[in-house]
Write a structure and sequence with these properties.
about 40% helix, globular, binds nicotinamide-adenine-dinucleotide, binds sulfoquinovose-uridine-C1,5'-diphosphate
């Protein structure tokens, strides 16, 4: 199958591109490398030393049955996207290419506006390009479990059957996202569902939970393939951050009470879920929603697991409760369904089996690269920074669009 991976230089995208290529698919990567620019602008760096996209792809292609093609460009640029479609003719399009950090989107007005325009307009372009050039192409779009928020009822996979005043219907599950970033995923979901309805496109919206880990079978094959492992307050996800904090004996930064519960999955399951979605495409006109995570944990559960893993390595790990910089429920009911990918054949990697190998050992291995000044949160949901920046400066951050 010809599969294009938008955002293929990123954390999930790189692992997915290699996995699909290794499984015999013909893969192209689309990326404008803007994520590397954001890191430079924010003064943050992945724990793991990653190579340039050109270098890592060149090394992979030396031994790949089908070389990975690279299209460097911006998904919000319709001319660029059109030429990629004309040249590569994808049968499936996996869309990871968005600004994906909730804190980044809450820094200030410019970052909120940029996040919404980059994500929503990019996805809108993708929908128009599929319609114009390749209407049979299956869109596999990365959404987020955070679209649902934390309602006081069970979370279904995308849709809920409702009985109201004696009548019944199956409707999109209510959305209560918790950041301007998470809101972009809701806007995308509406646009995707609408395009399937009016144009007969086929789409799978993968509402992914928080991803952890960095090692997959493919990225472990060569130093050149090492994947990013973010631990800073903007791009680092909670479990990756806790493992890096533990590696240097920094008290784990639990926000608020730590009862915030989310769905989590190993990056090795991310790549498999995307493959399962591609191999089992949605029907024409269908907009499927799968909840893509394997286990639920509260932030405090994770802190205790990391403490226990630290003890096995002889590291004493403390926990600190910081005032929560976000506006979110700190204790709540959470029970999200996640059966559809398992029904297609997903066999999860459980955290209890991978915490040491896939996370703690990596954090310890690269301990010398850890910058402790990146641990404490500075972005505050209640107080976006009110600053006027020179236009040129925001342009570098990509935030002036
Ligand atoms: P990432 O930032 O590591 O990768 C995103 C990639 O997309 C980057 O390489 C970036 O340069 C590229 N990109 C962004 N905007 C682009 C544009 N306009 N044109 C071309 N390329 C562009 O993010 P990630 O962690 O790999 O996340 C990938 C996707 O998965 C995102 O959509 C995110 O919302 C979703 N997701 C991630 C997680 C997680 O825990 N990492 C969880 C749930 C959902
Ligand atoms: N948290 C802490 N301490 C920290 C960092 C985070 O307690 O040091 C808490 C947060 O307050 C939140 C939870 O941990 O309650 C998860 O935060 P996170 O930063 O790991 O994840 P989040 O902001 O939700 O975003 C990440 C990805 C995003 C994806 C989302 C999936 O960056 O792209 O959409 O996970 S989900 O959470 O299911 O919406």
């Amino acid at each position: 199958m010809k599969i294009v991976v938008l955002g293929g230089d990123g954390y999930c995208g790189w692992a997915t591109a290699l996995y699909l290529s290794g499984r015999g698919q013909t893969v192209a990567i689309v990326d404008n490398l803007i994520r590397r620019q954001w890191d430079r602008d924010l003064g943050v760096e992945t724990l793991t030393p990653i190579r340039t996209l050109a270098e890592r792809v060149a090394v992979w292609n030396r031994s790949a049955a089908n070389p990975i093609e690279v299209f460097e460009g911006d998904v919000t640029d319709y001319g660029f996207l059109s030429s990629m479609f004309r040249e590569f003719r994808p049968e499936a399009l996996v869309h990871f290419a968005e600004q994906r950090s909730a804190p980044y989107s809450m820094i200030d007005r410019e970052h909120a506006v940029f996040t919404q325009s980059n994500n929503v307009l990019g996805t809108l372009n993708v929908l128009f390009a599929i319609k114009e050039f390749q209407p049979e192409c299956h869109l596999v779009k990365l959404g987020t479990m955070g679209e649902y928020g934390t309602p006081n009822i069970d979370i279904e996979e995308g849709y809920i059957e409702i009985e109201h005043n004696g009548r019944k219907d199956t409707l999109p599950f209510p959305k209560q996202p918790g950041s301007f970033y998470h809101l972009t995923k809701v806007h995308d979901s509406h646009n995707i569902s609408f395009a399937c309805r009016i144009w007969g496109l086929r789409a799978t919206d993968l509402n992914q939970g928080v991803v952890y880990g960095t090692v997959t079978d493919e990225t472990a094959r060569d130093e050149a393939f090492v994947n990013r492992f973010d631990y800073d307050e903007i791009f680092g996800t909670v479990l990756n951050r806790f493992c890096v904090q533990a590696a240097v004996g920094f008290p784990l930064t639990v926000y608020g009470k730590g009862g915030q519960t989310r769905g989590y999955l190993d990056i090795r399951d991310t790549v498999r879920c995307v493959e399962l979605a591609c191999l089992n495409p949605a029907a024409k006109g269908e907009c499927r929603v799968y909840n893509q995570f394997t286990e639920q944990f509260s932030v405090l559960d994770l802190a205790h697991l990391v403490q226990a893993a630290g003890r096995k390595l002889g590291i004493e790990v403390a926990v600190q409760h910081l005032p929560d910089p976000r506006v979110e429920a700190e204790q709540h009911y959470y029970n999200a369904k996640h059966a559809k990918l398992a029904d297609l054949g997903l066999q999860p990697h459980l955290l209890s089996e991978s915490l040491l190998d896939s996370l703690m050992n990596i954090a310890v291995r690269y301990r010398d690269r850890i910058d402790q000044s990146l641990f404490l949160p500075r972005v505050n949901w209640r107080q976006p920074v009110n600053r006027r920046q020179p236009k040129e400066e925001m342009a570098t951050a990509g935030a002036a669009k």
